[in-house]
Amino acid sequence: MPLPPPAPLKRTLYIGNFVDTPRIGQLQVRERTVVAVDEMGVIRAIKSERNLEDVVRELGWDSWEVEREEEGGEGWWAPGFVVSKPDTHTHAPQLPNLALFGSSTLLSWLETYTFPLESSLASLSNARRIYNRAVTSLLRHGTTTAAYYATTHVPATNLLATLAHSYGQRAFIGRVCMDHPEINKPFYRDSDPTSALRDTKACIEHCQNLDPEQHLVAPILTPRFAPSCTKELLGSLGELAKEHSPPLRIQTHISENTSEVELVKKMFPECDSYMDVYDRYSLLTPQTVLAHAVHLDDTEIQTLTQRKAGVAHCPVSNTALASGMCPVRKLLDSGVKVGLGTDVSGGCSCSVLVAGREACGVSRLLASTLKCEEVERERVKLSVEEALYLGTVGGAEVLGLGDKVGKFEVGMEWDAQRIEVTRVPEVEENDKDETTEREDADLGLVELWGKETWDEKVAKWMYCGDDRNTRKVWVKGRCVWE
């Protein structure tokens, strides 16, 4: 049964500074601005603060609340982060394994760390403990929308959906499908394609009953990756996606690691490439999110573009597991939709800021390895503005939410985070106030000295920021974290 509806929202005027990236590479800053959000959580007006009375009169509102930045504070509103794996890509059950990868690479890491932990979520109490922390950790870091990989267990996967919905997070919930007897361990796999499909349908039904209109929670088909599934299961999932209207979203992995790519060649000799495996089984659609995409060839990128599928770029885990450097600029130039993924627990943080700064760093390292003209090497590098775009608008487009969230525009929904940073006071050392020092510590490592441009303020947030700077988070107009 659906959960009871939450309390009605109040019309609200948000007054202050607003920062977003409506187009890739563009940082849009609106100072002293009012954003009017109605009782449905939808932005109805964006005007200069000077026109506050006109805004209310034009909207015909007879009552409203006001939320403005504190006098003397330093901060802004930014769109909520949209991630796959969770963000655009995250593994909720792997949270306890954050930073545990040692010197392993992908396939050995899965066997040593991942599968034993995920199998433990057969215990619903263990699942509740982990999933509670997973959802709240993402919200605390400003992630308003996440595409979750769960486990093979139906009760635990349904619990994740219920928890995300109760916390008010937008979430795509995927029960992981993995039935291949030669690849998966006996203690953690689907017994056969039929049972995998049956259990997947049970999780889809739970999501649909929980949120019939899919305002927040929706199912997403999740074949773990091609080698983990039999051909029969891949085909059945492709058909299942098409049976629904609109077609179900799909998430999986592709070309994360060169050993994985070679394994796919051996297991699917009839297919031209890793990309072709998904294409042949109707799993490559505009609703598909492919995590990693580090080692694609030109033909695969062309197919990816033609099918209008998206990529979840996971630079932290790619570095941690020595998987490689994803050529993000090449994907973007080819017209591929790209978002950011934290890829917990291959990635060591739930923060999209961490993923963004790593995306910038990986792109610069990749540029240094290229033998080409200096101008082309410079183009390969991602800017701060571009990384923020990937974590907001890019992720929204990958997940099919580009018309709802990711930026501040009239008609879009108020998924936002309130960012506050430290402004260093102009006082002598012996005049410092202990209370001010404590307050500054609560705002983390971002320090503004008074002469920074907006580009520089946002860069400091990207490279030095963390969850201490995220003071409040809203999803669809409702405050879900404070």
Protein described:
There is one protein chain. With 482 residues, the chain is an alpha/beta fold. It has 16 helices and 20 strands. The chain has helices at 52-59, 106-119, 124-140, 154-167, 193-210, 231-243, 258-267, 274-280, 298-307, 315-320, 328-333, 352-369, 374-380, 384-398, 434-442, 454-464; strands spanning 12-20, 28-37, 43-48, 65-68, 75-79, 81-84, 90-91, 143-149, 170-174, 176-177, 217-223, 249-254, 288-292, 310-313, 337-340, 416-420, 422-423, 447-448, 470-475, 478-481. A hairpin with a 5-residue loop joins strand 2 (28-37) and strand 3 (43-48). Helix 12 packs across helix 14. The chain is globular and about 65 Å long. The model has no long low-confidence stretch (mean pLDDT 91).
Distance between the termini: 29 Å
What is the β-strand count? 20
Helix content: 25-40%
Q: Radius of gyration, rounded?
A: 22 Å
Helix/strand-derived category reads: alpha/beta
For the report, how would you describe the main beta sheet? 10 strands, parallel
Average pLDDT rating: 91
Q: Looking at the chains present, what oligomeric state does this protein adopt?
A: single chain
Number of helices: 16
* Rough outline: globular
Give me a quick take on this structure.
With 482 residues, this protein is of the alpha/beta class. The protein contains 16 helices and 20 strands.
Protein traits:
single chain; 482 residues; alpha/beta; ten-stranded parallel sheet; 16 helices; globular
